[in-house]
Amino acid sequence: MQLVFATNNLNKLEEVQTILPPHIKLLSLKDIAWVEDIPETQNTIEGNAIQKAEYLKKHYGYDCFADDTGLEVEALNGEPGVFSARYAGPQRSAEDNTNKLLTELRDKSNRNARFKTVIALHLNGEIQTFTGICKGEITTQKQGKGGFGYDPIFKAEGYDKTFAEITLEEKNKIGHRGKAVVHLVDFLNTVSESD
Prior knowledge:
Layout: E1 2-5, H1 10-17, E2 25-27, H2 45-60, E3 64-73, E4 80-81, H3 94-104, E5 112-123, E6 126-138, E7 154-156, H4 168-174, H5 176-194
Parallel strand pairs: 1-2, 1-3
Antiparallel strand pairs: 3-4, 3-5, 5-6, 6-7
């Protein structure tokens, strides 16, 4: 089975590739020579994932999946949420985004947050969605050199290290994207068994 993952983010690609079984060949947007931005104009994480998958299928015809992820912070009424990638502006700078979030939470004692990933799979003319959630908290300062995005300031429940301080294997086991991909793989396995 061959699927296009609607991303140019090499970190995301690596995370997902390590979870997918070997019989699923994963292609990135670069592999299919896609250079334009895919629209993300919906007001929900699920809406954006579906929009990206539908857009790719319509313009290229590939079976594909797309994801959208948001960091939802309790004390900020769920922000940055669907705007996580552009929280500090259209430049999409992870550094700027984490700095802004730390500033917004400076005087807040409630630092509860959760990462939410929704994957939309466009396969055989139908769309299925899969959700993964990881609860945790925002640290008071950046910790660790690994990961990407908000990883240096997010600690999962039960962990004393941020996502930027743990291995990719650990992150995939407990993280939002890993959980969503596991649901995706479970579904794809049932599809391939019925073929």
